[in-house]
Amino acid sequence: MNSPPIRPIRRLLIANRGEIALRIMRTCREMGIVTLAVYSEADRLSPHALFADEAYCVGPPPSRNSYLRGDYLIELAIRHKVDAIHPGYGFLSERPEFARAVEEAGLILVGPSARSMELMGNKLAARHTVADFQIPMVPGSPRAINDPIQAIEIAKEIGFPVLLKAAAGGGGKGMRVVESANEFAEQLERAHSEALSAFGDDAVFVEKYLAAPRHIEIQLIGDQHGNILYLFERECSIQRRHQKLVEEAPSSCLTPEVRRTMGEAAVRVAKACGYYNAGTVEFLVDEKLNFYFLEMNTRLQVEHPVTEMITGLDLVRLQIHVAEGHPLPIKQEDLQINGHAIELRVCAEDPLQQFLPDTGTLDRYRRPQGPGVRVDDGFREGMEVPVHYDSMLSKLVVHASNREEAIERMIRAVQEYEIKGVSTTLPFGLFVMRHPAFRSGQFDTGFITKYIHGKTLYPQPSKEQLRVAALTAAWHQEQQQTDPSGRQLVGQQPTSEPSNNALHTQAGNGTDISSNGFTPWRINRGF
Asked: What are phi and psi for residue 475, nearest 5 degrees?
């Protein structure tokens, strides 16, 4: 491979918003790179717009009129003499047409080539690309399908249940589980419709549905000199609507041998498409630790901080380094896992209403602090949570010397995190951290379906806990019904029955969580 010329990046435009824009800016500031932010009219006073060295409005709130205007962003970059564009994740980050336009404009894209995006961005194309590289894959149709009869025959051959998947995208859109032949036509029509709406491409294919897999991904970094490293794995099995909520590194289930085998397979996937820069290869893993190629994400991932925590690497710094044309400064044998990291996506969603997004004003917003705690966010107290963008408020990340300590640290951090004004996934995160299945490491992608039931995210109190709560309530009521001399007030009788107040507490952040539909029983501080 011919060595690329070294092209220093001195001015960088970040074609994104919120926490990822801020995260990129902080590394750039350490590297002495001038940052240019773009913002919609809804984000005029957002922290990412205020933190950047320069900031420019790119249109009204809807993404299609602002953050997705690739041609305008490139024009803006040229006008302000920018060297490179970093697309972050989401928005334009996996659009090969944008990557090609950036390259044709003579700018550097901090990301992979347009060709790699094309090969890996379409799931069917990705399967064909890696077919000759000894990559295990989930059984499925070799091409897109439109005929329900043909699709049913394929499904019968690989066995029900099957999964209908949009070829052009991810995030659970255009994805349907089909249990039997008689529901196939209806589900296929829905999958086509969702895929067309989400990605502008209604291509759908059939894949064997693995009922209880784990979702494990391998982080890669490659340079333009042909070097590709795997930075170990992330466990991403706790999901809603096929979208991740809790991630950790390393996985609690992989052996060192399986970890190495998966890492080497991921490197082969990257080499199959001539990949460079940061990317992630995703696998499904069954109960016997057999793994199957799922897809490749040709960008930085939301959950990249847990990899940074266990490796000590700054992935954004490495992205910029290889985008300039430098070879990677590290080798595979230099890498090792240091401790354990967990990330909780703090989203403005109600976990007890099928994670329905919520909007409102952040009346109170206080981040947790202390050893091993990191918060990547793009909000501050008093800001409105806009309806136009993703519901994620922040990424709460903890790191400790082992998994047990990391879990306890996450519990402490969640209890310290103060958010009022919108429902969030903080109580859900606490539920996960305290759940026996998670603590034991015995869980899969069906965690939410299996364990979230009824109207509470909290375990039912034991008889002993109810007895203590009842006695406590009775004592408090007796104290309130007696004057300072100890005489009982007329007309008020003490009771030994547990009151509603006995099962009512305040969250560690001062928020009355029972008002959000939760029924906590603990009388100690915290959720």
From this structure: -65, -45
Residues forming the active site: 299
Query: Which region, left, alpha or beta, applies to residue 277 given φ > 0 means left and ψ of -120 to 50 means alpha?
Result: left
Tens digit of each residue's pLDDT, the chain (527 residues): 678 999 999 999 999 999 999 999 999 999 999 999 999 999 999 999 999 999 999 999 999 999 999 999 999 999 999 999 999 999 999 999 999 999 999 999 999 999 999 999 888 888 889 988 889 988 888 888 878 888 888 888 998 999 898 887 666 677 888 998 888 888 888 888 888 887 888 888 898 888 789 999 999 999 999 999 999 999 999 999 888 999 999 999 999 999 999 999 999 999 999 999 999 999 999 999 999 999 999 999 999 999 999 999 999 999 999 999 999 999 999 999 999 999 999 999 999 888 999 999 999 999 999 999 999 999 999 999 989 999 999 999 999 999 999 999 999 999 999 999 999 999 999 999 999 999 999 999 999 999 987 666 755 555 665 677 677 777 767 666 655 544 444 444 433 333 333 323 333 333 333 333 333 333 233 33
The number of CA neighbours under 13 Å toward the Cβ of 343 is 31
| Residues 248/342, Cβ–Cβ less than 8 Å | yes
The class that CATH gives domain 11-110 is alpha beta
Instruction: Note the pTM of the prediction, 2 decimals.
Output: 0.82
Q: How far apart are CA 368 and CA 370, in angstroms?
A: 7
Inter-residue contact 196 to 202 (CB < 8 Å): yes
Task: Report residue 268: phi and psi, to 5°.
Answer: -65, -40
Strands 418-420, 384-385: parallel, antiparallel or unpaired by DSSP? Answer: unpaired
Q: Which of 276, 275, 338 has the alpha carbon at shortest distance from 306? A: 338
Helix ranges restricted to H, 330-462 = 403-416, 426-434, 436-440, 447-451
Compute the distance between CA of residue 527 and CA of residue 521 in angstroms, rounded to an integer. 9
Strands 291-297 and 277-285: antiparallel
Helix (H, G, I), strand (E, B) or coil at 430: helix
- Is the domain covering 139-208 a CATH 3.30.1490.20 domain? yes
Q: Say yes or no: domain 214-451 is CATH 3.30.470.20.
A: yes
Nearest to 157 by CA among 142, 176, 167: 142
Largest CA distance in the chain: 94
User: What radius of gyration do the chain's Cα atoms show?
Assistant: 25
Do residues 24 and 300 lie in contact, with contact meaning Cβ atoms separated by under 8 Å?
no
- Cβ–Cβ under 8 Å, residues 320 and 27: yes
Domain regions of the chain by residue span: 11-110, 139-208, 214-451, 463-516
Amino acid at 242: H
Burial group, residue 61, by CB count within 10 angstroms (0-12, 13-18, 19+):
middle
Q: Crossing angle of helices 114-121/123-130, nearest 10°? A: 100
DSSP 56-108: EE-SSSSGGGTTT-HHHHHHHHHHTT-SEEE--SSTTTT-HHHHHHHHHTTPE
